[in-house]
């Protein structure tokens, strides 16, 4: 073989390179790593001599005031880029309800109920700790109720390689329902005034988007302006703009139809195989959410000036911070475990036979990682850059770190034990097969 032909062996076609990038971007570990890197970078900058630069970038305002869009960079990240993340969440939610794990009520009942318990109990824990505070403080009751899918699943992927696949299914189902509840809470409890004319106006581009995707239109130059128009109208109405992303995601068809379908390959007989637009859009926009939307939001949302030892002590003695940490580390797993245990006593709703209670305990601790949505709710409850919001960030970061360490430790030990058991079984089979 000539030397001139050697490089050609390793040259990737553009579509193959892009496929590899998409596959890597969809990696659960990469998503969690980017979130962690953005968070650490924000904390370092906010507590270093570069803090004025970081704050000036975050607080720069630009936009169109006539459309209520004169926002800071941080607000654009929270309201704009995060809408892309919620669009992907909406796509995944619809896929699960139409064709996935949530289609069978009996199969989904336990993780759905566990998600509800994992929202109610941490909220009650926060309210109990802040019972003597005023109504302004109690507005943060929903902060410790959310589970961050990217972080939680990334930790499980790292430490739980030898655990039953059903555990990941349970966590994903729980987190998806958790997101749906969080979206409902944001739209219901953190919308102060609603401008009805703007909501009515949003129906026009929303209908156009629905008509286009139902007819299989995938052209970005048509769908993107319609989606932006929906986002602008929802934002101007007073409803949090991320809700627009969910609404758009719910409109995309899941099942392949003669009009709305994407060819994904061929079967064994050479016949074409088609997929629905929901999976196609989730594949494309999931990359944007993983590589751009969520890390950028985390970078501008997690940068809190701790204020040295005195500032940290002040935050850790604030009932807001204590309520968030207790809600995430104690309330979240308690709500999940109590609800799961109660429903597992019902014969028709028993847990998957491959799961053991130590696995569920570790998973419920991991569900206390509340990052993206928790930070967003904190800003909505107390206002960006306020003292209370700074304490929210410290509480969310500390609570999420503790949940990750506790859950990761339990599941890591369980995975190590499962690996030893599997290795022992393999050796026994080899010994029996020897003459």
UniProtKB/TrEMBL annotation:
<protein>
    <recommendedName>
        <fullName>Na(+)/H(+) antiporter NhaA</fullName>
    </recommendedName>
</protein>
<feature type="transmembrane region" description="Helical">
    <location>
        <begin position="364"/>
        <end position="382"/>
    </location>
</feature>
<keyword id="KW-0739">Sodium transport</keyword>
<feature type="transmembrane region" description="Helical">
    <location>
        <begin position="394"/>
        <end position="413"/>
    </location>
</feature>
<feature type="transmembrane region" description="Helical">
    <location>
        <begin position="29"/>
        <end position="51"/>
    </location>
</feature>
<feature type="transmembrane region" description="Helical">
    <location>
        <begin position="170"/>
        <end position="190"/>
    </location>
</feature>
<keyword id="KW-1133">Transmembrane helix</keyword>
<dbReference type="Pfam" id="PF06965">
    <property type="entry name" value="Na_H_antiport_1"/>
</dbReference>
<dbReference type="InterPro" id="IPR023171">
    <property type="entry name" value="Na/H_antiporter_dom_sf"/>
</dbReference>
<feature type="transmembrane region" description="Helical">
    <location>
        <begin position="196"/>
        <end position="213"/>
    </location>
</feature>
<comment type="similarity">
    <text>Belongs to the NhaA Na(+)/H(+) (TC 2.A.33) antiporter family.</text>
</comment>
<keyword id="KW-1003">Cell membrane</keyword>
<feature type="transmembrane region" description="Helical">
    <location>
        <begin position="141"/>
        <end position="163"/>
    </location>
</feature>
<keyword id="KW-0813">Transport</keyword>
<feature type="transmembrane region" description="Helical">
    <location>
        <begin position="320"/>
        <end position="343"/>
    </location>
</feature>
<keyword id="KW-0812">Transmembrane</keyword>
<keyword id="KW-0915">Sodium</keyword>
<keyword id="KW-0050">Antiport</keyword>
<feature type="transmembrane region" description="Helical">
    <location>
        <begin position="220"/>
        <end position="252"/>
    </location>
</feature>
<feature type="transmembrane region" description="Helical">
    <location>
        <begin position="109"/>
        <end position="129"/>
    </location>
</feature>
<keyword id="KW-0472">Membrane</keyword>
<dbReference type="InterPro" id="IPR004670">
    <property type="entry name" value="NhaA"/>
</dbReference>
<feature type="transmembrane region" description="Helical">
    <location>
        <begin position="71"/>
        <end position="89"/>
    </location>
</feature>
<comment type="function">
    <text>Na(+)/H(+) antiporter that extrudes sodium in exchange for external protons.</text>
</comment>
<keyword id="KW-0406">Ion transport</keyword>
